[in-house]
Amino acid sequence: MPSTSPYHELARRHARLHRIGHASAILAWDRATLMPPGGVGARAAAEAELQLLARELRTDPAIGALLDAAAQESLGEWETANLREMRRDWIEANAVPAEIVTRRTMASAKCELGWRRQRFDNDWAGYLPAWREVVALSRAEARQLGGTLGCSPYDALLQRFEPGIDSAQVSAIFDGLTTWLPTLIAEARGRSGALVPLGKVDIETQRRIARSLATRLGFDFQHGRLDESTHPFTGGVADDIRITTRFREDALLQGINSTIHETGHAHYVAGLPAAWREQPVGGARSFGVHESQSLGLEMQLARTPAFCALLSPMLIEAAGPRAAFEPTALYARMTRVEPGLIRVHADEASYPLHVVARFRIERALIEGEIEADDVPAMWDEQMAELLGLDTRGNYRDGCLQDVHWSRGAFGYFPSYTLGAIYAAQLFAAMRAALGDLDALVADGDFAPIFGWLATQVWSQGCRFETPELLRHATGSALDAGPYRAHLTVRYGGLTADATPSR
Amino acid sequence: MPSTSPYHELARRHARLHRIGHASAILAWDRATLMPPGGVGARAAAEAELQLLARELRTDPAIGALLDAAAQESLGEWETANLREMRRDWIEANAVPAEIVTRRTMASAKCELGWRRQRFDNDWAGYLPAWREVVALSRAEARQLGGTLGCSPYDALLQRFEPGIDSAQVSAIFDGLTTWLPTLIAEARGRSGALVPLGKVDIETQRRIARSLATRLGFDFQHGRLDESTHPFTGGVADDIRITTRFREDALLQGINSTIHETGHAHYVAGLPAAWREQPVGGARSFGVHESQSLGLEMQLARTPAFCALLSPMLIEAAGPRAAFEPTALYARMTRVEPGLIRVHADEASYPLHVVARFRIERALIEGEIEADDVPAMWDEQMAELLGLDTRGNYRDGCLQDVHWSRGAFGYFPSYTLGAIYAAQLFAAMRAALGDLDALVADGDFAPIFGWLATQVWSQGCRFETPELLRHATGSALDAGPYRAHLTVRYGGLTADATPSR
Question: Model's pTM, two decimal places?
Fold first, then answer.
């Protein structure tokens, strides 16, 4: 095919967008890690300008005709998948008028700015006016996008994060969780004993531990960095991945767990198909699939007795011997179940119920079943029902705890738990293929595990939509069974009624 | 004037360019300071893409008509100066066909890549073929730009770095230096005694010293960072200035001097007129004026007995007492004159002669009086004549020592010494206004000094061209007299025949 074909012209434009995205990614990383405070205004303007440039390139009217013409070309499988992703991008970029996007972005920025203070002050009444505006504009955006895609407003937002999965599926899966998870949590709480006190570990020692842990887990410092930020994240680009963690003297495992988590994200990014680096098909499949790789490493692989046995001597070497560094003490700490108000501090078993509550609330909100003003009441009701917690009047640790809704990032929350479910399904299939993973983990031999993930997930990029990716990797459709089995074995201490996850 | 006026449309476009420039500046800083080595390919592509985007915006054909229409508007003084700088940018961006720019950029990248090895190997024959290409394309570029500007090819390149100054002026000033500077250097060498040995200072201590020194000299860490790179530089943007330095255990003063030097650059950037932040008129006047601010701080202010008295207790506090930290020992070390082969290691008195040699060679080369092949011979001749050094056969420490020519950055070198001359002239005027600076420096009271520079230079941005800026600040035309006086007092130990600089 000649290099001037419509497909190649589209590919050229997407390579350009990718490079602008590279600049945006580094600017955002820099802002979150080491930018001096006085740089915030100029940086916001520069980042907004790059976004505007990208939007102009993505909405160039010529693209519509190029997409139609490229569809007539004789393309290979990957090129066809790439064209599908290009069309998805085109539809999404054009569905919502620029004016609504701009107003929503500005309303979100204003709301988030107020939220930083209002959350701290537990000031729901102060927060509400700006947030009503975010909700109204997010609904308008969702209606526009849904109109173009032929789906409900909330489904339209959901597909930005998890294309190929709709809210009916999510709802069915999440409702399923609520039939057995609260019971499992109650059982696990009943069996929780006292933890061996861990004490403090100085930050410099924690940095050394995090660095050697990331190295051990295959993070490539020739193609990436490990830094610190208020909220851990994975940024940068495939050849230069910037992961961050955070340290607190009295919370050693927090820094360790986020290092492991972000290393999982980093593996996915590094393993995406190099030949398609600058193209949509070479990107991460979805937020949920991304999360399946971080949670795969953190929950499936590292939150195990075998990994605790590997971690224990690393901690002792770095910080000296402590009773709390013994493998059994570490494992007991990592798997303690104790429902609490804050999602990001939740244990593995409680976490999905935080997500279920948020999904139900944001779906009702975007579909117009409730209003912004009704959110605290629904929050109280959901937290009581799902986690047995009383949140009345506590907005700070209630519906104001996360930044997502202030930013208008509705549709994002389900990805966290979908990721956990995908991870369990993938690791169950991996065990069927590789046999006992514990022996590999105990030896620190992660190569077969990462090799399987690289083949089945990382190198697939956006070749498939999520449901097909799972079927291709595991031989089954999306199935929450392995997730139930995994949690039941780990926290129920009983034989699971599905295939045990270990 | 309505916000849709041609002038405002131009201002809008330049604000956009400024923000893209912000992104480019941060990407370049990141690359030079902390990017992992594996990121180099993707980063080069992203940086090139931003440059291409900027070029597209700068060469949009609509700009020509906007400039003509804006010239008919009734504009204030600053707007008029801004329009002049916008037109300069337009002419420069359009004078050279994109194809030549692209070929020159690629040839430079290739030449520089080879140079890294060939310099090390003293391999002039290996270097020459790629460099001939750079020279040919740089000449083509210079001819095109000179044709548009109505000046000689070398003058066209020179005005990129030093607008308002032509090579006849530079030549006259530089020839003037050669009539007295070699004699002064010979005298200073004759009087140089043995230095008190300094010994090693560990890097962590040097980092602390550099940080407290920058703070003492007014660097604002709320709006900037101090990091490390192979070659010190000042990057970032006005509200977020990124200076770098470098440390070697056995070269304490190197890290200190570059910290002072870059802090001078940072003051200039921070002091540029905030109201014109995103406009051409709000930018730095020229490379020479920029250098006058770094050299003003480094050579005029800090390389003095008064500053050494201030620095001495800082060093003793950080690294413990040493004889070499005594003020007189520090000053003797800072002002030692010993001509050597390498420009970046040259003492203050020898440095300008390195620049004179380069100016003569690059001017002859771009004007076609010599060929690339002739450069080593002319180098040997100039170094013998100006500095009494034998460089025959030593390409590594000779004409291959700097990266500028490999990159095609012809016309840059004069700025270094023009900056030193401007600095001497500015500081002589400052002394006439403020009286004895030594007393202020000894007290660490830099506020009056920076206040004068802020008013006379920093806040002026590109309101004037360089010669007018100097006249406005000092009451005189460009004059190398104060520079001669400064060097003569410091290194001659005799009464200067012009106004003494102190």
Answer: 0.94
